[in-house]
């Protein structure tokens, strides 16, 4: 901000040569940040002076986040061990749905204003087949491929989905495989249910993601707000302030808790089942032993959340954690593609054979997995090594 203020005073080519929209973004963002600093009075001036002296502004160490993490861990263990997390799952689902509709409504309301609306020309340009120029060391192609790997349904959700289908009774309704027309008819019917399930999920997460993205573009990007560090949640909440005012922060906080905690809960529930199956493959648990199966899930329901809490309390660098997760995501996506192709062409019942159009899009999706996964591993791996060395 200080550098850009100086460039603006001198009307240097660095700022005058910028496109009008980029120039406005920098000037508007600087003015907004200057207002926030002025509101802090003496503390704000001290912070500015520290930056001018070449000092680094360090976020203060806090304990309240540890207390909340501990509470979330205990609640998660209680729900997973008891196996009674359906009530919270339904409750968080309602919150997530409401938050999604609020986000969509927020975008529609912003579009009706002169200051915040995104023009149709901007949207069309964003949907065009091309990339903007690299700026500030950020490669748009890298960002696009990395985003493709994390938006929507991630690798862990794809792995856990078959477990939820089993526990919801899909396989039980179909019954053991039989060489009868009745069994084939039931199996096709439940496969059709899964098709609808996946298709509707795709629509929901695509619409929600696009709405959230456009809200961020119209409010945050326009004023150069970067949602990073300890101020990530408060910065993201700014996207809701123009419509909902000061209530936006509480609204966003409740929605964020619903979205993030439900993810934490379901992810741990899925991991308990994945590791239990791993133990069966390794021969540590006898296959078909339901008592040992349930016991393993209960034990892991304690160990896994506590492990997450321990890693969080060690003040692990969030950047390292995100990069590590990105690398694992990139590795898993091609593996899932190989698994899907193997089950489709070598393990599927011939009576349940899918159409050629389905197979075409399956192969196309797997190719996308390979491209995005390999690219994410390359980019995130390079960033990870650069950070370590």
Commentary on this structure:
Among the domains are: 1-58, no CATH class; 68-139 and 202-314, no CATH class. Helix content is 76%, strand content 0%. The protein has helices at 2-10, 13-16, 20-39, 42-52, 64-82, 86-111, 120-127, 140-150, 155-167, 170-174, 181-219, 232-237, 241-244, 247-281, 290-313, 318-347, 356-388. The longest helix has 39 residues, at 181-219. The model has no long low-confidence stretch (mean pLDDT 79).
What are the defining features of this structure?
389 residues, mainly alpha, 76% helix, 0% strand, globular
List the helices and strands and how they pair.
Elements: H1 2-10, H2 13-16, H3 20-39, H4 42-52, H5 64-82, H6 86-111, H7 120-127, H8 140-150, H9 155-167, H10 170-174, H11 181-219, H12 232-237, H13 241-244, H14 247-281, H15 290-313, H16 318-347, H17 356-388
Helix pairs in contact: 3-4, 5-15, 6-11, 6-14, 8-17, 9-14, 9-16, 14-15, 16-17
Q: What share of the residues does DSSP label as strand, in percent? A: under 5%
Spans of 5+ residues with little confidence (pLDDT < 50)?
Answer: none
The whole-angstrom Rg is: 25 Å
Mean pLDDT: 79
**Number of alpha- plus pi-helical segments:** 17
